């Protein structure tokens, strides 16, 4: 791993706080949270919520256990038979229930575009390597497949295969999967391929999934800051689980409780409020809990939330990689400084995909992390799949036991769990106590410029983005000047600090959606990966069309409208910066 030493020094106060992190307490929290299977909307899950609530109330948090209707999907029985041979399998959340669906199985290998173009899958069951992801199921459906079988690794991995983020609405309910989906182990995959290859390729699938609205809990716990109590940092993680889910997400919940326990002892040092948020509906509702919370508190979040920090799947055995986790460019320094100071590792970070409880980009809230530690890269089938799901492809994900029956207490390394807790604690403490909000807006602008340049390269002669690039460069210059001015602000000038913080938050409200939101900021984009500045994604379609066709003109017109939105957003962002610069002179 890369090492360097130029990190912000841990202060005496910070070190005192970090020394109080208790490995025994973390493991005790984990055992209590993960002692039952916690399917969304069940009594077992609710008991875990009530345990967390009691722990936080005991150390002085104000808590509220809320309930909302979540569209929840709980997989049941699944069966696969080929040539009168049964293959053990599982089905997936949000997939279609099917009774004895019979069709020809066609082997697509990795299921890439080329594999589909070379095979007619209409009315057939597609067989492919990998994890059952929404994108892969969507592609199979669009190609006319009747069902899908995924070959996992040594264990089958529970998944939710819908791309619809949170509760569907009339425009997205039609995007819910309408084919049955199952997964089998690598060993069974080899046996199945042998049969299919020998011509015995008629498969019979049976799947049972219960998908309906259920009341699901959300736990909110808060301690007030002393300087800007109306501003808060949100620290969130889901409680629901696949099987016992000790790592996913028991240890993460334990970190939340330990961070809460410790920061409650130092609450007089907090400038801003700390809000802990525990979600349901993550695993079985495609983030329905966090999405519903955003819908119900959109204005509060956009006006008062300084930063969202998420925690997931922490403290796993062998989780030695702390350099690849998800971040925004503007929050990367927070992770870089904390991880560097505590471990010496050089955090690089990777751009967020559309996964985890990242339901708050539309509010303009900067975000950091899903998990912070991962497995080293490996060549086994599980690691290969995970490297594409997590990070930037340079890690092995959260462990081969992720989303399996094997996510049990023996997969946790207490020392790594304590290490991960310290990383989160230091980041949160600094964000809550530093006078100026530690968000690097220059890095955000530069990330947007890089995204614009990539779109221009792709668009070529089809579309001219020079105005966007010009405005982004002007914004970069203004933000550079602002960062220089900020270094001259006195820590005792509370009014000037307040104005700058308001400007930094206002800037995020333009830059975060510009860089991460494709559609309306009041809705939730699909759980499908997208490039930076996704409002320009119409370019992907435009460049494939005949310039003389009506379709090209339709696409071009849509792009012009989104181009206008990008340009005006950049103009508004620059106005925010220029306004605060005038006040600072």
UniProtKB/TrEMBL annotation:
Gene3D superfamilies: 3.50.30.30, Zn peptidases. Residues 112-192 form the PA domain. One of its GO terms (molecular function) is carboxypeptidase activity. This is M28 family peptidase. SUPFAM superfamilies: PA domain, Zn-dependent exopeptidases. Coiled coil: none annotated. InterPro entries: PA_dom_sf, PA_domain, Peptidase_M28, Peptidase_M28B. Residues 219-419 form the Peptidase M28 domain. The lineage of its organism: Bacteria, Bacillati, Bacillota, Bacilli, Bacillales.
């Amino acid at each position: 791993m890369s090492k360097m030493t130029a990190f912000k020094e841990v202060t005496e106060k910070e070190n005192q706080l970090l020394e109080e992190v208790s490995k025994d307490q973390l493991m005790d929290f984990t055992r209590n949270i993960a002692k039952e299977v916690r399917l969304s909307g069940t009594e077992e899950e609710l008991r875990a919520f009530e345990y967390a609530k009691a722990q936080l109330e005991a150390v002085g948090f104000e808590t509220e256990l809320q309930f909302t209707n979540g569209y929840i999907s709980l997989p049941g029985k699944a069966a696969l038979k080929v040539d009168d041979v049964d293959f053990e399998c599982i089905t997936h959340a949000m997939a279609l229930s099917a009774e004895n669906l019979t069709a020809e199985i066609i082997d697509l290998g990795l299921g890439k575009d080329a594999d589909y173009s070379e095979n007619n899958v209409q009315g057939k069951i597609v067989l492919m390597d990998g994890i059952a992801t929404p994108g892969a199921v969507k592609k199979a459906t669009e190609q006319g497949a009747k069902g899908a079988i995924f070959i996992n690794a040594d264990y089958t991995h529970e998944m939710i295969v819908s791309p619809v983020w949170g509760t569907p609405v009339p425009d997205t309910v039609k995007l819910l999967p309408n084919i049955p989906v199952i997964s089998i182990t690598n060993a069974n995959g080899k046996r199945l391929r042998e049969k299919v290859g020998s011509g015995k390729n008629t498969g019979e699938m049976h799947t049972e999934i219960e998908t309906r609205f259920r009341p699901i809990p959300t736990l909110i716990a808060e301690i007030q800051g002393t300087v800007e109590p109306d501003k808060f940092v949100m620290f969130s993680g889901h409680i629901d689980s696949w099987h016992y889910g000790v790592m996913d997400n028991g240890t993460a919940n334990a970190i939340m409780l330990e961070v809460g326990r410790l920061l409650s002892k130092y609450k007089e040092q907090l400038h801003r409020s700390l809000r802990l948020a525990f979600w349901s509906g993550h695993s079985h509702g495609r983030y329905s809990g966090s999405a519903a919370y955003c819908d119900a508190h959109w204005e509060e979040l956009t006006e008062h939330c300084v930063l969202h920090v998420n925690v997931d799947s922490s403290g796993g055995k062998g989780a030695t990689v702390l350099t690849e986790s998800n971040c925004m460019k503007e929050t990367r320094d927070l992770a870089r400084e904390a991880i560097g100071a505590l471990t010496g590792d050089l955090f690089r970070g990777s751009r967020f995909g559309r996964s985890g409880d990242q339901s708050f980009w539309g509010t303009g809230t900067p975000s950091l992390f899903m998990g912070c530690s991962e497995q080293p890269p490996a060549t086994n089938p599980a690691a290969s799949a995970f490297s594409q799901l997590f990070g930037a492809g340079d890690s092995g994900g959260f462990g081969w036991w992720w989303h399996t029956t094997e996510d049990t207490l023996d997969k946790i390394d207490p020392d790594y769990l304590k290490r991960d807790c310290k990383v989160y604690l230091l980041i949160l403490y600094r964000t809550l106590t530093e006078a100026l909000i530690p968000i690097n807006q220059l890095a955000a602008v530069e990330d947007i410029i890089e995204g614009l340049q990539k779109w221009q390269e792709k668009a070529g002669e089809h579309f001219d983005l020079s105005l966007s690039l010009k405005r982004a460069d002007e914004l970069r210059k203004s933000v550079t000047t602002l960062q220089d001015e900020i270094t001259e602000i006195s820590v005792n000038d509370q009014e000037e600090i307040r104005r700058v913080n308001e400007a930094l938050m206002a800037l995020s409200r333009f830059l975060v959606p510009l860089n991460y939101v494709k559609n309306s900021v009041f809705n939730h984009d699909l759980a499908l990966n997208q490039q930076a500045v996704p409002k320009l994604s119409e370019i992907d379609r435009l460049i494939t069309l005949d310039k003389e066709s009506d379709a090209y003109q339709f696409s071009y017109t849509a792009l012009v409208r989104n181009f206008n939105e990008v340009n005006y957003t950049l103009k508004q962002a620059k106005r925010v910066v220029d306004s605060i610069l005038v006040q600072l002179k």
